[in-house]
Amino acid sequence: MKKIFAFLIVILATVNLYSQGIRTSVYDAPVVGVKLGLNHSTFRYSDPNLKSLPHELFIRPNVGVFFELHLNQNFSLAPELFLYNRGHLTKYIYETDYNVTYQVKSRYFTFRMPFCYRVNFYNAENVKPFLVLAPSCNLLLGGNINLTQPNLPISNVDIAIGNANMRRHDFSLFLGGGSQFYIDCGSFFLVTKVEIGYNIGLTNSFSNMEIEDVSKSENINAYNITGVRKIHNVEFNITLGIPLQLIRDACWNADMNYKKRNVRTQRDDSLF
What we know:
The chain has 5 helices and 11 strands, in the order H-H-E-H-E-E-E-E-E-E-E-E-E-H-E-H. By secondary structure, it is of the alpha+beta class.
């Protein structure tokens, strides 16, 4: 416990060691970095019968890269590209006797354009709360559908997701908030964000083949294709970024220090 307490003290001391000028430059510089997160994904149906299906906890990972550009002290744009895992897990009883498990694991390549509003508190210079609004375009890469229904004629189905199962692209809107802070790592800074939010599916994820009745859903005991199906996610994300301006300044300072040392060395050698 003492070691943990000492470790926390060291972190807090490091985070609050620097002047207002350094903090301002860290938060105003363009930032490039990586984004890591987890999401709980569910399907939302308009069909009254499907709305009653339970949504089991279904945690999926996502990872990507981002570039953040500050428009002023409060607003910024942070376009990001990442691999986004979504899907659905439900367990229910069919006709009072059969336990059915239906699981969809889908993978997407996602482009998201977050608009961030950062709140600047004068008495909390290294803690910057923010709100984010981010339209997203999601391109389906593939995935897997698994249906288990013991004691029924089709007891187990496991197929790869294709054009017959899900729409190739869809759009969504992420709404969230969190806090930003930075950590000094000696030769560079890490600008870190912790955010939580909700990703709202805006378009129908049923494939055209399902809607037009060209391809039957594998989950034939659960539903017929009626209405719409949208993918929603509760997300928790962490971003780690490096301010580009400070990297440039650090490299410039290192180069100037090297040149100064080289000049002094040449002067010293000329004395002999």
